[in-house]
Amino acid sequence: MIQRKLEVTYLPYDRTTRVPAGTTVFSAAHWIGLPIDSTCGGRGTCGKCKVRVIQGRRDAETADHRQLRPSEIEDGWRLSCQARVYEDMTCEVPQLLRVPKAATMGLGRLVILDPNVRKVYLELSEPSMEDQRSDVARLRDALTEEGHDMVAGVAVLRTLPPVFREAGFRVTAVLAGEQLVAVEAGDTTAECYGVAFDVGTTTLVGTLMNLRTGMAASVLSTLNGQAPFGADVISRISHGMNGPEAIQELQDAVVGTMNTVLGELYRETGVTPQQTYEAVVVGNVFGIDPTPLSMSPFTPAFMDELSVAAREIGLQIHPHGYIQTLPALGAYVGADIVAGVLATGVAREDRIRVFVDVGTNGEIVLGSAQRALATAAPAGPAFEGSQIKCGMRATVGAIEGVQLSDRVELQIIGGDVPPEGICGSGLVDAVAQLLLAGLLEYSGRFKKPEDVPHHPLHDRLIDVDGMRAFLLADGVYLTQRDIRELQFAKGSIATGIKVLMDILGVTVDDLDEVLLGGSFGSYLNPESAKIIGLVPPVAVDRIIAVGNSAGEGAKIALLSYRERQVAFELPSRIEYIELSGRSDFNDSFISVLGFPQLAPIQ
Amino acid sequence: MIQRKLEVTYLPYDRTTRVPAGTTVFSAAHWIGLPIDSTCGGRGTCGKCKVRVIQGRRDAETADHRQLRPSEIEDGWRLSCQARVYEDMTCEVPQLLRVPKAATMGLGRLVILDPNVRKVYLELSEPSMEDQRSDVARLRDALTEEGHDMVAGVAVLRTLPPVFREAGFRVTAVLAGEQLVAVEAGDTTAECYGVAFDVGTTTLVGTLMNLRTGMAASVLSTLNGQAPFGADVISRISHGMNGPEAIQELQDAVVGTMNTVLGELYRETGVTPQQTYEAVVVGNVFGIDPTPLSMSPFTPAFMDELSVAAREIGLQIHPHGYIQTLPALGAYVGADIVAGVLATGVAREDRIRVFVDVGTNGEIVLGSAQRALATAAPAGPAFEGSQIKCGMRATVGAIEGVQLSDRVELQIIGGDVPPEGICGSGLVDAVAQLLLAGLLEYSGRFKKPEDVPHHPLHDRLIDVDGMRAFLLADGVYLTQRDIRELQFAKGSIATGIKVLMDILGVTVDDLDEVLLGGSFGSYLNPESAKIIGLVPPVAVDRIIAVGNSAGEGAKIALLSYRERQVAFELPSRIEYIELSGRSDFNDSFISVLGFPQLAPIQ
């Protein structure tokens, strides 16, 4: 399945990356964030990305002959976007003439500002009897001179005659890749926006980005309008199985939410839909029949990235704007994880790291630039507060943090409100604290009050309907069954991690970092996660909550076509491991059901 | 402007073609109708189009390394769809393993049946825990094995899960080029249709083609629904200048007519819209603002070929089907002429021929494979029966043929009906006959009855409102002013031809054939056209009415992606000559206003 990787070394930086055969020298540089100049984005039309091949295959391609002088070709110069890696290579990269604009995003990643959407201001020559080129030919020729290829649909072409003439042939072309999105009168290069959407199960976050400065113009989050159709992915899938109308309902709900968010973002910033040319969306917004996902062997309709006209789903950006999605790694390891990998750089550095997004499924990516693996471990809804007696979602009134000493200290969402229940992060905290306080056995069994008569909290060990429980607050308690639910959930994820570690041949001592992604990961107490055995027992300062890594990845893909290209390649670079049916998963699962004192992940 | 052409010779056929630098060896072969095997249509994915380069540049491209064995590359074998011509070349083409299905179309052109729309029946492996590929990956892999690349939009991808599962993973993929149009349950390869539309100013002709057999399933013609907005192109343009609503009105009218024709074609044949995947359309159906066309320097919005989703204009073929247009050669030399060139082979053979489509503009293509020129000569509406006192369109009651001896014989459309007026072909015939009968001077001046007292028709020379005229029938006559109108119209076209002949450096003796295209050309009497000096004075048997060449070209483009490719390349192979402002046009024009006895085209 996995091919041997080939090494490309870039001089004078002396940086090396390993890529699959057939990758271009240009793309391989993106992988390690090394900037090679380009204005066409790797289409072989601008000629700026030339490198000198010092070692390795150096066949000249057609575009080389077009863009380079024969003497350059003789000297080994090649367009890096055309040169493909078929054996180990060493290349010399020319010094950049301009310092690229870059920003630190995600988990300390330096992202070069080079959006897929580009604006090019052109002063076209006016038609005359000597120059009767069509409007399109005139535009295309001017763009070619600037090193841009162009393809255009009829909807945009239709707008050319009036715009050209009203503007006296001084226009700004808006390109998304090589696709012509718009032609605007005059010089509008100062105004160029895109929007990044992280469509989570519960929450939808939209960030309006200024593609010229790389800064967020405004951010807004709201409840995903799909919530009424079920709180988790599985119940949404069930709803979707009711047929095409139900699928359409789901799509309408999420697109409606996105448009509400857009409306608010436009209102706040004064930016218009006409200035917003592209949306990078992480999440399914296209109304795909999810039925095959619901049953073995769990095959999705598709996992590839897609570029779709915004009007096709009615997203209110520029009428000829585009929606770009990111690919998925597997049936239950979606684009949010690809975005998270982009935001954290997992699988692109030499460090061995594990990225875990805890939810209904624990989605896990483990590895380094050498080799990386991914899987989804079915965790059930415990971490989302479901199936827990006093469980609730992470909204006002939910206990999200617990500290036990001689008394019970609670952290409640909304601050000074009475606790109404407990959410996932509170649950993890509570169980970790119960273990530390000696009120819970490592097997997961509550102690009886009479076993710990002198414990200051022994009277909190109560009986609820004949079942042992711990009283957190008036009317809010954890039952023995709740503990079992959590054990299954964390056991599944821990096992997923262990299976990947075994396949990769690494132990806990080899792990450089554990990254907790997703919205749940942001709230999780890393120490508690370690105590209950959800994550491998590395030093606590190496367990890092990375925040909304999916949204951050979407923003990165919006600001940098190079990073976007990396995202597109991730599915071919990360091996997907299916857990169900694996005997080592089942064996491990049993062995990690207890808490770590009994069976830590080794 | 014009680059030196390069020669490619194909062995063992020993056939040679001349192409611009950068053309692929594969495309160059289409130009002379030479079939090189291919299932992917020149995308470098099927590996079947290999040729052995015997003389000329033979750099191996990436696709060569992928598709060919090292020993083949060593021996000079290259994929002809990747090998570009940068110097004169000689290649050996392998014998075709199968005899391609071909048909004679247009003017004796052998067209190989190889439509852009292909159906591929696939028995996919079913998903399992060991093979969790997504539906798309499964489809793409199976198509790759058959040598097809695939790109797909979300609208089609959405249909995969239910179709795959209902059909037990036995499906037919419908590809238009590499675009996935549909996936159908079971083996539907027997049913594959496309429609060719010739959208003329007056008449719209639709032909439903069976893409499997290459036969027309049914043909239907009707009045273009745009007729109420003006009888000719200029008045349509004027209407279109009333703003976006007016443009939309024009588009709705023509699309409505096309859908009416489609509905009738479906009813007659039992073919369904779902089985009709592509429409090749000759004519503007996209609602483009025509304003810039109406004034100097006459620059159109675009002249390129377009591929547009059928649903974008509401054409009732397969919901994910496509519309393909052909490119234009110049502002007033449209896709109908490109289709005509395709149907006649002008500019692709060694013979020197002139193709003339007579209408409001005389559109002219002159030349051979060595060099070809095109222009549009403004003729005014005389040939369409406008600006002629008793003129009318070619409908029931119109005189379409005239024979003068000792009496007047008329051919009337509709047969045994009283003549109501005279249409363009009747006008040309009448004037030619008047010249032959000695009733019209070569200057274009009517003789007076007293000049020809013994002529059996001298009493037909009448006076209408103080102007000389000839009485054709009760209430139908030709006035002196009508004759002047015709002189200007034919003079303009004759001058256009002469200017092109001068530029090409040929005389009447060098002309092998004169081809009369367009609907008007079909009805024109070649001898009359020669007598009035509309066309150069070659032997009458070398003046050929080629019928509905535009519609025939559209059908050829539908049945053969190779011919379609040739059509796309025509604008870069035929030089466009702008007549207005040329002093030689004005000079010639004056000299050919009279009829040939005075100033034949030399």
Overall description:
Two copies of one chain form a homodimer. Chain A is an alpha/beta fold. Chain A has five domains: 6-97, Beta-grasp domain (Ubiquitin-like (UB roll), Roll), CATH 3.10.20; 117-185, Ubiquitin-like (UB roll); 193-325, Nucleotidyltransferase, domain 5, CATH 3.30.420.480; 336-381 and 486-591, 2-Layer Sandwich (Nucleotidyltransferase, domain 5), CATH 3.30.420; 386-481, no CATH class. Chain A has 17 helices and 28 strands. In chain A, the strands form seven sheets. A six-stranded mixed β-sheet of chain A has the order 13-12-11-14-16-15, with helices on both faces. In chain A, strand 1 (6-11) and strand 2 form a beta hairpin. The longest helix of chain A is centred in the middle third of the chain and has 26 residues, at 244-269. Chain A is globular, with a radius of gyration of 27 Å. The two termini of chain A are 27 Å apart. At the A-B interface, helix 4, helix 5 and helix 6 of A face helix 4, helix 5 and helix 6 of B.
